[in-house]
Amino acid sequence: MNEVVRKIDFSSSTPYYAQLKELIKVEITEGVWRNEDQLPSHSEICEMYNVSKSVVRQALKELELEGYLVQRRGKLTEIIDRKITGDILQKLSGTYQNMTRLGYYPTTKILLNEVIKAPASISERLGMPPGSKVIKLHRLRYIDNEPFAFMRSFVPYDLCPRIAEVDLTGKSLLEEIRKEYGYEIDSSRRSIEAVLANEDEARLLEIPIGSALLLYKSVSYIKNGRGIGTTKVLFRGDRTKFEVEIGNFKD
User: Fold this and answer.
1) How large is the average pLDDT for residues 112-116?
2) Does 4 fall in a domain?
3) Which structural domain range is residue 24 located in?
């Protein structure tokens, strides 16, 4: 049985079941109770938090309605894997197409859309002369009204000037580039690594500072070898996992 760190505040006006629901939710999101683990029995939870069975039943019912767990008659409560699986490491598509292909319907909030002189690192990454103009985009992507990914992108202005005027709310950047200019992605260089959320990232993604994030980096190219865009995406570590399919390929 896991040791309880957080406790019910019996002096609070907040109903006990609501407090218990939030306590268990925090335990799940912080990995104390992991995806596909089973929660303790109702009796054990009563003992752990010093509450009645009716409080436990109401709290677990609320968590089930919110998609955190599933209860089956005669069995222990099972935590649902709420992580969104991605395969963007091996498909020439963007994060928006990846989500819709999996049956999710992401929405996007535009935080920044401006034309600037490219920093040296960006012009080098895109194969552009120093000081070239780029469109700088910051976007926050949501799944089920919950912030899921913070995206920072740079697009060459000389290739896609009208993208600076397009409202990308609820749209795919790569799809809009294809529609406006006919550019198709021919190749892409991508990587992923684990990082910790700083104060600004935690605020945007509504997570505690220092939470685990997956940093996804990509540079996409069109057929003539020009870089059409570079993006860094910070995915919430508690909601994301990536899968890679491999085969026994001959040299």
Assistant:
1) 95
2) no
3) 16-79
* pTM (2 d.p.): 0.66
- Nearest by Cα to 25 from 62, 76, 55: 62
C-beta separation of 10 from 20 below 8 A: no
Same domain for 113 and 31, yes or no, is no
**Crossing angle of helices 42-49 and 16-29, rounded to 10°:** 100
Q: Which amino acid, residue 34? A: R
Which helix (DSSP H) or strand (DSSP E) does residue 96 occupy?
Answer: helix 95-101
Domain final position from 45, 79, 113: 79
Which of 28, 51, 79 is a domain's end point?
79
Instruction: Count Cβ atoms below 10 Å from residue 32 Cβ, excluding itself.
Output: 15
Give the type of residue at 25.
Answer: K
Average pLDDT over residues 211-220: 91
* Tokens coding 46: 């009563």
In angstroms, how far apart are the furthest CA atoms of the chain? Answer: 68
